[in-house]
Write the structure tokens for this entry.
Amino acid sequence: MHARVFVTLKPSVFDPQGKTIQEALHTLGYPGVQDVRQGKYFELDLDAPTAEAARALAAELADKLLANPVIESYRIEVTD
Amino acid sequence: MHARVFVTLKPSVFDPQGKTIQEALHTLGYPGVQDVRQGKYFELDLDAPTAEAARALAAELADKLLANPVIESYRIEVTD
């Protein structure tokens, strides 16, 4: 099974990297960019029998290694 | 409009960061992780009148700054 994990900073956490990208885009001539937040994206190939098992495994991996639950939240999508 | 941009290395490009994460997960006791690829994820708030305009703007931003088209590909999702 394939799982996609999207990790983003929690909304209350300041994202200086996103802010820098936003300012760079303004400098490049795109004033219509109102906000940018950068996150991480993981594509996982998992040896799991069902979509539910793959989702549970991906959540465990995100909790243990892929995300820092103190400042980050994550979202999981599972596909075949 | 909100746009999400997912940037990943092209399949033919070796991803040492993903490989390192995969090995770390094996060491942590998850042998069922067959492959990991890491990418970047951007959430953009765009000042665009329609979903089509937001998608076109996000693609332009991805081509110019967010992705390196030589080694990376990207995918865009637009929401309200």
Remarks:
- Chain A has one domain: 2-79.
- The interface with chain B takes residues 6-8, 18, 21, 24-25, 28, 30-48, 57, 60-61, 64-66 of chain A (CB under 8 Å).
- The longest strand of chain A covers residues 33-46.
- Chain A has a mean pLDDT of 95.
